């Protein structure tokens, strides 16, 4: 499909959207969901944190060998990174953690080693983070926190069984500790979501939220993250009303929380409010010009007929990616998927995705290889990669849509129809542009065949190369 046709299809589809209810199968899952506690505003401690950072910066400037001050500084920088998404804090945290370990080696400075692993994780240097986490486990085998960062890195590297084992150790060793219990529930939820168990994921995120709110000083970003994840879980099964409420609850707690702002824009688009979606994304990109947010805003501008504004956003995505490439691999996957979604530089996109997947073999890395391989004309490779992306049966309509398009390119009509139907049954408005293409193809297929599109997202797939294993 040409880029121009894709945009025409998407524009026609989104402008006609209305709120879409859950299908029967999805509604059954929704009945298992536990209601979260009411949202409350949690005050920011920005001023205190920034004053502490300035004090610590002066302290380490006066005494570069003060490893304790370096560690505290790295921890505060990472807190600010989580709250704002500003990569400047990542650079500063890296410098502080490395200065700490230069002053005192890891076997005597376990806090410094933990912070370095966290920095590497945040920078998407997952292999390095895994090795430092393993070293930390060897130094502190009876503590919970080394297993947390080890499990996190293994999860991102696609070693899901080993990640689960690490989280079990974390749970066993830290069961009585409040913040560790919160972190454990968060990770149980993430694993369940990856495995398509949305009911367990929802329950775990609610428990994490309740535990966080019960702490003497509830951590604002943690509480907002749990509410945002509840929204992501609801969105994944097409429950847009619930998703929007969770995102708004996150913003009640943390008014400028960038994750919830962007997701609220996405769900407004799913519910047919294109102007509201644009307003949300315009707000979030002023706070954090993340390439994914900028690209999403560009897509919405296209759908609104604002082609020049869209072009400016896409140019900005390219500029951010060039700057990011100079500092590491933080935006590689986003850039590859942007190219593939917009039919740009297909060979470069594939090369970027393949390089990352050689190290980071998670399901979304496999999906990136599959989608970019399709756009680069490597259909056989795309079919192999999409099998890996689908191996956990994750409830993500985007994965199903990619599988459908790959099967279509391979002339496997039964597989294409199955995956397209499953994508639209699970989450019919999963993406403003790509979702509209999926609906147009499904409508065309239905018209030609005289059949109806299934609303059962868990129907047994036909026998074909691209089905989940």
Question: Summarize this, please?
Answer:
By secondary structure, the chain is an all-alpha fold. The protein is 72% helix and 0% strand. Mean pLDDT is 89; it is low at 1-31, 446-460 and 463-469.
Largest beta-sheet details: none
Query: Considering DSSP H and I runs of 4 or more, what fraction of the residues is helical?
Result: over 70%
What is the alpha-carbon Rg in Å?
Answer: 22 Å
Mean pLDDT: 89
The number of strands is: 0
Structural class of the helix and strand makeup?
mainly alpha
Tally of separate helices: 24
Poorly predicted spans:
1-31, 446-460, 463-469
Spatial shape: globular
Strand content: under 5%
Alpha-carbon distance between the two ends: 29 Å
- Please write the string of helix (H) and strand (E) elements: HHHHHHHHHHHHHHHHHHHHHHHH
């Amino acid at each position: 499909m040409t880029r121009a046709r894709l945009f025409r299809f998407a524009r026609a589809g989104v402008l006609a959207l209305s709120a879409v209810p859950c299908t029967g199968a999805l509604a059954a899952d929704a009945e298992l969901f536990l209601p979260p506690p009411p949202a409350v505003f949690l005050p920011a401690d920005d001023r205190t944190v920034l004053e502490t950072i300035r004090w610590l910066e002066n302290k380490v400037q006066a005494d570069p060998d003060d490893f304790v001050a370096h560690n505290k500084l790295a921890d505060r920088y990472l807190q600010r990174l989580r709250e704002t998404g500003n990569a400047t804090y990542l650079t500063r945290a890296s410098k502080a953690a490395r200065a700490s370990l230069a002053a005192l080696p890891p076997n005597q400075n376990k806090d410094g080693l933990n912070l370095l692993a966290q920095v590497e994780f945040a920078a998407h240097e997952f292999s390095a983070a895994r090795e430092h986490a393993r070293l930390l486990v060897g130094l502190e085998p009876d503590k919970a926190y080394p297993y947390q960062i080890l499990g996190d890195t293994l999860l991102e590297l696609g070693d899901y069984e080993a990640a689960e084992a690490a989280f079990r150790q974390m749970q066993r060793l830290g069961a009585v500790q409040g913040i560790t219990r919160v972190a454990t529930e968060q990770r149980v939820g993430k694993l369940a979501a990856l495995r398509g168990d949305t009911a367990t994921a929802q329950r775990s995120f609610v428990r994490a939220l309740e535990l966080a709110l019960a702490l003497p000083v509830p951590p604002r970003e943690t509480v907002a993250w749990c509410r945002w994840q509840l929204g992501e879980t609801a969105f994944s099964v097409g429950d847009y009303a619930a998703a929007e409420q969770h995102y708004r609850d996150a913003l009640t707690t943390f008014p400028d929380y960038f994750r919830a702002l962007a997701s609220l824009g996405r769900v407004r688009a799913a519910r047919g409010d294109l102007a509201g979606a644009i307003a949300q994304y315009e707000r979030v990109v002023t706070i954090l010009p993340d390439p994914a947010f900028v690209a999403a805003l560009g897509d919405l501008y296209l759908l609104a007929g604002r082609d020049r504004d869209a072009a400016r956003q896409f140019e900005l995505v390219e500029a951010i990616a060039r700057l990011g490439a100079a500092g590491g691999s933080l935006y590689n996957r986003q850039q590859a998927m942007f190219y593939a979604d917009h039919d740009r530089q297909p060979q470069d996109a594939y090369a970027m995705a393949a390089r990352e997947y050689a190290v980071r073999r998670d399901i979304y890395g496999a999906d990136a290889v599959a989608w970019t391989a399709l756009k680069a004309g490597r259909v056989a490779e795309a079919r192999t990669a999409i099998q890996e992306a689908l191996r956990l049966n994750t409830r993500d309509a985007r994965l199903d849509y990619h599988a459908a398009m790959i099967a279509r390119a391979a002339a496997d009509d039964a597989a294409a129809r199955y995956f397209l139907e499953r994508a639209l049954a699970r989450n019919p408005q999963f993406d403003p542009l790509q979702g509209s293409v999926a609906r147009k193809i499904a409508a065309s297929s239905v018209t030609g065949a005289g059949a109806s599109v299934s609303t059962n997202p868990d129907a047994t797939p036909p026998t074909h190369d691209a089905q989940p294993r």
